[in-house]
Design brief:
Elements lengths: L1 E3 L5 E3 L6 E4 L1 H5 L2 E2 L2 E4 L5 E4 L12 H13 L5 E8 L2 E2 L7 E8 L4 E9 L5 E7 L12 E4 L13 E8 L3 E10 L2 E11 L5 H6 L7 H18 L15 E4 L1 E2 L2
Parallel strand pairs: 5-6, 11-16
Antiparallel strand pairs: 1-2, 1-15, 3-7, 4-5, 6-8, 7-9, 9-10, 10-11, 12-13, 12-17, 13-14, 14-15
């Protein structure tokens, strides 16, 4: 769900297929129920070069573990990390955002990295956590500065506020874009888990169009609607050379 509140109200909801898996499967280059992770051929793939440093031969879990050590330090609590992302279909995909979620021994999330991509082939990773790295609860609203340009209809200013609910049966995450304390845009991803099966992967193609084509088509369609409503257009600024930032302000 996307809900733009300012300068005009524009809301839309659509279905999309995501997969979730333990990132240790990257190292194994695993193939399971029609999904190829890290390598191999097939309709559904999660290839190395779509994540992290975007290198074809580099396991992105190596990049993620380096990022985690840099921002967190003590990882004695770490049990596993899962990646929630859209798979590449027929060699194509556009992931507006993928979520790396690190869990402790009790399967509670301690750190989430939102790897954000824009349509200009640029990316930035927001490292989201509580100030003391304790488990993130569904009620927590964790704030950080917006430092990456995404939409031509918003300037690069303000803050993001993240909420995460990584339960045993459902997953949801919301990103609230705030300026001077007021919400101007909110994006929410939510869904329930299903066992990974070939049939489920193929059924994910049914709602509308193939996911790899559906997302960019919807982005440009919504952009056209905003343009028709005379929403001001902002030129793309030079991005920061720093490709990650920390979000750890806990809103009261």
């Amino acid at each position: 769900m996307h809900h733009r509140r300012f300068p005009v109200d524009n809301r839309f909801v659509y279905t999309q297929g995501y997969v979730m898996f333990d990132i240790c499967l990257f190292k194994r280059k695993a193939s399971y129920q029609g999904l190829n992770i890290g390598g191999g051929k097939g309709i559904f793939q999660v290839p190395y070069h779509r994540y992290g440093r975007r290198l074809k031969g580099e396991d992105p879990s190596l990049w993620y573990n380096e990022l985690l050590k840099k921002h967190v330090g003590d990882l004695s609590w770490l049990h596993k990390t899962v990646l929630v992302t859209q798979p590449q279909v027929f060699g194509m995909v556009f992931n507006p955002v993928s979520f790396w979620v690190s869990l402790d021994q009790q399967e509670k999330p301690r750190v989430m990295v939102a790897e954000v991509n824009n349509t200009f082939r640029q990316s930035h990773s927001y490292v989201v956590h509580r100030p003391d790295f304790s488990p993130i609860s569904p009620q927590d609203r964790i704030q950080g500065e917006k430092v990456f340009h995404v939409s031509p209809f918003y300037e690069r200013e303000g803050d993001y506020v993240f909420q995460l609910n990584a339960g045993a049966e459902k997953f949801s995450v919301s990103i609230d874009y705030e300026k001077t304390g007021n919400s101007v845009f909110k994006a929410t991803l939510c869904g329930r888990f299903l066992p990974l099966r070939c049939r489920a992967l193929f059924l994910s193609l049914i709602p509308g169009l193939i996911p790899s084509l559906k997302t960019p088509i919807l982005i440009h369609y919504q952009a056209l609607k905003l343009w028709s409503k005379k929403v001001p257009f902002t030129k793309t600024p030079a991005q920061s050379k720093k490709r990650e930032s920390s979000c750890s302000i806990l809103q009261k």
